[in-house]
Amino acid sequence: LVPIVVQHIGYSHPRVRYAAIHCIGQIADDSEEEFSDQYHQIIMTALMAEFDDPVSRVQRHACAATCNFVDKMSRETIDKYVAVLMQKMEKIIKTAEPIVQEYVMSVIASIAEATPENFKKMYYDQTMPFLVGVLQPVPYTHRTLPTKAQVQ
Fold this sequence. Notes:
This protein is mainly alpha-helical. 74% of the residues lie in helices and 0% in strands. It contains nine helices and no strands.
């Protein structure tokens, strides 16, 4: 089932991409760690490609599915993707519209929660300035950003 769904993540029509991403996100949310560990390579490759989707709805859903997927990954598996994910999230958050930025922050929060020591040591100092920079120009009425992760 997973290979069939994943092949549709790159489909030409955005509704099909959205539906395939939704399916992966739901399976990841309903599954145990074994699912993420078994299919991480094929799914993470497909989801990361959709971070650059021209349709913001698809882009946001790719971020949401990534959160579901990362939340169920083992520490060993997530460590393989942290550097690439953080690099992509930093790039996207600097140019994306505010609603996409919210989802990007959720991915960053999921990474921070999954790898707290690694995140604090390797990414906290470089991540916080651009996150604060993103929050500053946003009007107060648009501040619905999730506050999932706490770095201690």
